[in-house]
Amino acid sequence: MKIIAVTACPTGIAHTYMAAEQLEKTAKKLGHSIKVETQGAMGIENELTAAEIAAAEVVILAADIAIERPERFDLTRRVKVPVQSVLRNPEAIFAKL
Amino acid sequence: MPLKRQFICRLPNGVHARPASSLEEAARGFSSELILFNERTGRTANSKSVLSIISADIRFNDRCLLTVSGSDEREAMAALTTFVETTFPECDEVASPSPELNGTFHLPHSLRRSSVKIFNGVPAVSGVGRGCLLQMDGFKVPVTLRLTQPDDIAAEAQMLEGALQKLGGDYEQRLALAKKEVEKEIIKAHSAIARDPEFRNFLFKAVKLHSRTVAGAITDAERHFSGILAGTDNALVSERISDIQDVCVQLIRQAYGDAAAGVAEPSLKTDTIVMAETMTPSQFLSLDRAFLKGLVLGHTGATSHTIILARSFGIPTLTGMRDLAGAQLVEQEAIIDAYAGALLTNLTDEAMRYYALECHGRSERQARVQRFALQPATTKDGCRIEVAANIASAEEIAGAFAAGAEAIGLFRTEMLFLDRKAAPSEEEQFELYSRVVVAAKGRPVIMRTLDVGGDKALGYLNRPVEENPFLGCRAVRLYRGCEEMFRDQVRALVRASARGALKVMIPMVAVPEEVRWVRKIISEEQSRCLAQKVPFDAQMPLGAMIEVPAAAFAMDALGAELDFFSIGSNDLLQYFMAADRTNAQVSSLYNPLEPAFLRFLKQIADHAQAHEKWLGLCGEMGGQAQFLPLLIGLGINEISVPTPALADLKAEMSALKLVDCQNLLGRALGCATADQVAGLIGNFVAANAQPLIDSELILINADARTREEAIQVAVNRLYGLGRTKNSRAIEEAVWEREQTYSTGFGHGFAIPHCKTNSVLASSLVLVQLRAPVNWDSLDGQPVRVVILLAVREADGANGHMKLFARLARKVMNEDFRARLEAEKDPEKLCEFLHAAIDP
After folding, report:
1. Interface contact flag, A14 B755, Cβ < 8 Å
2. CB B387 within 8 A of CB B377
3. What is the pLDDT of residues B156-168, one digit of tens each?
4. Considering only CB atoms, which chain A residues are within 8 Å of B753?
5. pLDDT tens digits, residue range B488-508?
6. Is A38 on the interface with B (CB under 8 A)?
7. Å from A27 to nearest chain B CA?
8. What is the pLDDT of residue B100?
9. Catalytic amino acids of A?
10. Any idea what the Cα angle at residue B310 is, between residues B307 and B311, rounded to 5°?
11. DSSP states along B162-228
12. Which of A49, B499, B711, B827 is deepest in the core (most CB within 10 A)?
């Protein structure tokens, strides 16, 4: 499955990156392709391109705050989850995709 | 025919005790009646009575009428007119508030939902103390004393007169013995009340006309004058109530003796926090300060004499604590937290552990800073720059050297000249200057000759009012007009030069002629000493402040007459930019980072170096860390700062390299705007900040019983290492983040974090706990390892954030976590973390 994701947390110091790592690890384990954009204290990193967004089957929005430029995903199937659930049980999220 | 004159009160805080005493001093010498009428309140006051002036309740912009009648009415009116027009507006000096605190201090998080009882007050002197609560009464006449119907009215009046006289003598004696300036001030104020004509009249009237005993008269007087002061609604005035009460207690003592008066103060036998509705300064001084751990006061305000004393002795103090009497607190164990403004009782184990831990952190920090303080100041690459202290009194000198001063870079002699009726005598000055240079034990002391004018006026010089005092007859420009007074100072300095390493510095020099004239006076006085066989140091160095821009362009001609220069950065910047920093509309121009000003400083420094003249700096610029790299880059010989800034200055200097500072200055000189310079400094500071990880930031086997304690332990370490000055603010920021959801992410790990400027260098603290604590973790498991990420907000999105992000990713890895938990050697853990996140 071609998956993209965005992570963002209140301070942008820790959980944004912890969640990104967790999503990447789990996707790999389950045999999916994934690219995770982080919106943390350093701003947007590993930014998703228009082509990647267009090609994706689903976008996971793991955010506790409003993300930047959400309109990019208007045409993509969106799954919104709290950051905590990514840390607690990532496989359950993938199972529901 | 009485003379009348109208004026408007221009004192922002109104006529409280201090301006009232000045007015009384100006009026006292005349035999005429001097009546003051406040048109707003309709109250009339006798200008020779401080109490009477105060109770007229004259406030800002009140219109007043002064009526003078008597044999010397013309002279009196002339003197009072000058006083009201020139001296009066400058009488208003409000005591400085509590020492500078960095931001807000919160109550510890763990106390908010505990059973500890919290009483809120206003912090007046910061600090924390623990002890037993003791209630102390304010003014109270012992019940054993008869108040009315004396046996013999004439004898009673005589007894009153005797008590007043003895009290006056007692104040004089105590004044001679008092060491601290604040103590002297207070004794003077009390002595003024004791001889106040209104106060005396009231007392004698009560005895002679109303058949009161001395005790009864004093009781009435206390009630009467306290009532008037309380009714003024002016906080500064009502704070003087404790002064009146103090005088009344003393008077009872004088009349009836200590024992009969039964007003003995409690003697403290164990650590104690004293509660009182009001406390008189004498009551405060009678308490054994070895056991006095805190003061909790009802009515006393921040400028009262008791608070000023408490501050000078460092006793944590809260005010505005009402209704404590009903709380039945006496003899309970309590903690006073005068950072957060609270008194805590019903202490829990948790609360006591919190404060004990915090106290431990503070002493750890002190020990560390003290190590720097007592070493010579050098940069990391070994460049020596003398670090000296700015002081204004002999009392400060021991503290300055204990805090690490290598010299006294500025002794402000004008403090001795201010707030008095006539200039100090040569002997008084000689005694003070000698005391200072002897106490300096051979270390150099730069004594600046009288620097008044501008914002500091001396009433006894009778100077005309100037349109623009800062461009007027200030400092050296004043000396010719009062040559005898200046010669007294020079003689005192010349004589004191035999006692130690004394250097003399002239303020506000603009042209060489001024220096030549001062030099001539010094030579003449030295010759006179020689003739009279009075010892002096013939080599006594003479220098000048560089604070008038013209002096900076005349350093060659000035240098021919002088041995050294010291930059007075405050005035130099204000004159250079033609901007008054207290004027909000132009104060942004008063910026030491303006490239033009930096180029100006560079020119001064270059000139001094080329001509091998010693160059110091004694302005506020020296005490602020952000300017330090630029000052080091300039290559000046000495930086002189207020005592509390000494140790930090040395610590900060030891982390900087001369070459880096020179490079930074070079780039700053090329900038177009102050903002660009600030940007350069920001990057420089970030690049030179303490490293993110350090083996000292790793705690193994830490003792913490709760999540709160674990966070405190980690934050406390930041405090101990000087990475924050306000650990409470960091704890608060961490807890704010914890409130959204727990940072215990499972597997026995928690990653609390915050972004705040209260942390001075972004830091990672790793804590392995001795026993796991509950963290409301995502997986419900207790936490064994805590990783605190404290990000300095001003760092923005720079390199450190990348490392934190990398670490956040790594902790999701099981092997990585296992290693963080298994390794018990801080050095090795530090290396491991480095390799993992900063390869």
Report:
1. no
2. yes
3. 999 999 999 999 9
4. 11, 13-14
5. 999 999 999 999 999 999 999
6. yes
7. 14
8. 36
9. 9
10. 85
11. HHHHHHHHHHHHHHHH--SHHHHHHHHHHHHHHT-HHHHHHHHHHHHHH-B-HHHHHHHHHHHHHHH
12. B711
